[in-house]
Specification:
This is Mucin-desulfating sulfatase. The chain is of the alpha/beta class. The protein has one domain: Rossmann fold (3-Layer(aba) Sandwich), CATH 3.40.50.
Length: about 250
């Protein structure tokens, strides 16, 4: 599977972070459960480019033969080739992350991208941060969006195990409102773990230092991961994927 170069990813991450910071306080777009393709032009991701990437993902779905399906936004999309191969090269793994996606975009892709043809054993889901940063939604709305994606995955892949990632921490300061919103939504998302089909894991704790801050060595923009960050995430997820794929 073709992965983005780290240079291109760095540009995407920087632009995405700028876009999140440009969100007007109090301005909310209804994204959580609004099933839609990309409908907003961003300087770093035009609708035309999003449609092109989605077309590539649809072609990937048509090939089938996927045991571990990764689904999400730019954090999922951005796996460096070396870390991807190191952690998941022994699986039949496929990356369905698209930068800038919110839960409504993922819901649309699940219904319109031919993904129902797949029969993954494990789905690795990380979604929700763009509902905060690009849509201006609050924790309750973001939770509803994540819950809707999980529900759709259960319907499409009834035999799959869902490794539900907590929304990763953002902002260097642990008392920042955006960080606190992430903490709140994760408390609710954790309740979706049923111990049978859905398994919640908060790997974001591994990116937080003892004083509660986040090192730019791991998250240079306090949102996206460096190669070292992906290594930490991969090391944390691999045992859970190993266990779930054998169940």
């Amino acid at each position: 599977m073709r992965m983005k170069t780290m240079t291109a990813l760095a540009l995407l991450c920087a632009a995405a972070a700028a876009g999140a910071q440009d969100q007007v306080p109090g301005q909310v777009r209804q994204c959580a459960t609004n099933v839609e393709p990309r409908s907003v032009e961003f300087p770093w991701m035009s609708i035309e480019r999003w449609n092109g990437i989605n077309k590539d993902k649809t072609a990937l779905a048509a090939k089938g033969d996927v045991d571990v399906l990764f689904l999400g936004d730019s954090i999922t999309e951005g796996w460096p080739r070396s870390e991807w191969d190191s952690h998941f090269g022994n699986y039949k793994a496929a990356n369905f992350g698209i930068g800038g996606d919110h839960t409504g975009n993922v819901l649309w892709r699940l219904q319109n991208g031919g993904m129902d043809r797949l029969r993954p054993k494990v789905v690795v889901l990380l979604i929700g941060t763009n509902n905060f940063g690009l849509c201006g939604e609050g924790p309750d709305q973001v939770y509803r969006g994540i819950a809707s994606v999980v529900s759709s995955l259960r319907q499409i892949y009834p035999d799959a195990k869902i490794l539900l990632n907590a929304v990763l921490p953002v902002e260097p300061n642990p008392d920042h409102p955006r960080r606190l919103n992430v903490v709140k939504v994760n408390r609710d998302v954790a309740k979706l773990d049923d111990g049978k089909h859905v398994f919640f894991r908060d790997y974001g704790r591994k990116f937080i230092q003892a004083d509660g801050t986040i090192s730019p060595r791991i998250m240079p923009d306090y949102l996206h991961l460096t190669e070292e960050g992906y290594r930490i995430w991969g090391d944390a997820m691999r045992p859970d994927i190993d266990r779930l794929i054998k169940q």
